[in-house]
Write a structure and sequence with these properties.
It is a single chain. The chain is mostly helical. It has one domain (about 1-15, about 25-150). The protein contains five helices and two strands; from the N terminus they run H-H-E-H-H-E-H. It has helices at about 1-20, 25-50, 60-85, 90-115, 125-150; strands at about 55, 120. A two-stranded antiparallel sheet has the order 1-2. The radius of gyration is 16 Å and the shape is globular. The N and C termini lie far apart (about 50 Å). The model has no long low-confidence stretch (mean pLDDT about 95). This is Histidine kinase N-terminal 7TM region domain-containing protein. Keywords: Membrane, Transmembrane, Transmembrane helix.
Length: about 150
């Protein structure tokens, strides 16, 4: 059931990106996606494999579910978020976008925990929340820097 939930969430994220009025260019969207992939995969590798704070299921279907979550769904959430952030003209819309992305990312992590795809050893949802907020700040900062470098002609 975890596979179905994460797979459906990935399709919904793809549909949202396709249907939304994007404020970022294709290059900027690719930059956000690839930056999140690089940072996210390395962070997961350090936390799960090196420090062993999180145990990822070694069964085939739960592991594939985790890979869909980590390599497709989470980068798409950040692409949607950055498009919403750069489109927001007022503070309430900005806070709603940030809070929604935070809530969705945390809820998806909760689904992984509920279905036994992940198991926390020395970790908690609070640490995941901190990690999500820091990732939002890092991706936003790197995207602003990218825009300065590319458009500074």
């Amino acid at each position: 059931m975890g596979f179905v939930a994460i797979f459906a969430a990935a399709w919904i994220a793809i549909f949202v990106i396709y249907a939304m009025d994007k404020s970022l260019t294709i290059r900027e969207n690719a930059f956000v996606c690839l930056t999140q992939l690089i940072i996210g995969i390395n962070f997961t590798w350090i936390v799960a494999e090196e420090l062993r704070y999180i145990e990822i299921s070694r069964d085939a279907l739960p592991y594939v579910t985790f890979m869909i979550y980590r390599t497709i769904l989470v980068p798409l959430i950040y692409v949607i978020l950055m498009n919403a952030v750069f489109k927001a003209r007022r503070l309430p819309r900005l806070l709603i976008a940030i809070g929604s992305a935070f809530g969705v990312a945390l809820a998806l992590k909760g689904l992984l925990l509920y279905f036994g795809i992940l198991r926390y050893e020395k970790w908690s949802l609070i640490y995941d929340g901190i990690q999500i907020i820091l990732m939002q700040v890092v991706i936003y900062t790197l995207l602003r820097l990218y825009r300065k470098v590319v458009y500074a002609r």
